[in-house]
Amino acid sequence: MPYPQIVPTIEKAPDDKTWLLTVQCPFCTKQHTHGGGSDLEPGLFGTRGAHCQSGDGMYELVAPDSKT
Ligand SMILES: [Zn+2]
Fold it and tell me: From which domain of life does this come (predicted)?
């Protein structure tokens, strides 16, 4: 079964270097924040484990400009 795909909200961390990818969790409906790297453009999209789930609670972070 494919993981749910979520387009995260992207913002800079308070240090102004690190990207934060915030998603509304499909499992618990709360917001979880994942690190998106510290390059010029946000990265590190892909499959992540939901912080609230142990085991198989996974979703896929999709870049907002992704056409797929
Ligand atoms: Zn959750």
Answer: Bacteria
Give the closest residue to 61 by CA, choosing from 42, 38, 37, 44: 44
Q: 40: buried, middle or exposed (CB in 10 Å: 19+, 13-18, 0-12)?
A: exposed
CA of 41 to the centre of ligand 1 (A): 26
Q: How many Å lie between the centroid of ligand 1 and the Cα of residue 35?
A: 16
pTM for this entry: 0.86
**Cβ-based neighbour number of residue 18 at 10 Å:** 14
